[in-house]
Amino acid sequence: MALVLALALRPRSGPFFRRTVRLTREHEPAALIVPGSKVYFWLPQAICFCFATIFLLASYGIATSEEGVHWPLFVLFTTIGSAMIIPPVLAVTGRLRPEKLVLSTDSIVHHGWSSQTELYWNDINRLHASFNLQPLQQLLNIAGLSSARWSHRYYLPFSTISGKPNRLWNMDQLPHPRWIVIECPRFSVDSITLYRYLDFYIANPALRIELGEKSSIDRWHSIDSGI
Known about the structure:
The chain is an alpha+beta fold. 35% of the residues lie in helices and 24% in strands. The chain has a 6-stranded antiparallel beta sheet with strand order 1-2-3-4-5-8, covered by helices on one side. Helix 2 (38-63) runs antiparallel to helix 3 (71-92) and helix 4 crosses helix 5. It starts with a helix and ends with a helix.
């Protein structure tokens, strides 16, 4: 219950868990990274681990009971516990990872917890913000043109049914074709600053060349401070 409360309070904690943007040379061309919140990522994994422990210990208690095994309850608790332990295991092994946004001169790459979406700057139609919602539901929607170059892939295994991917674990917002959906609570930066930063480069294509350079970090700080 303490972890659930911490997860609910995390988006309201504001500056306490803020991180700054950084540059990376791992990509070509160089890019700027907007970091995700590690706290917000690991809290759900810890909650899943706690539930898994509760149910698996309960199933063990049923299995070792001197009054005999209640098999339906044993199977139910074992199934729930086994399912709940999967996300923490995937996180520890690196199959799930904290969110991040990679901004280069060419495109926006959104790395979700279990997926990756890329959309080119020149193919963006509009940026829409849903900040009138509760802190846990605030979204940024980057919509592409109907002819936008768009790609999406999953980190986790999935099956295809009727031509559509069927995911066993739903860790991210369901993708819209030619859209990038950003859940603001998953990032450790100010939501308004992120919106203004993206909107600036959408409106000023000639200045995207600075992304990946120190000037792009300076611009972030100037927007964040309201200059």
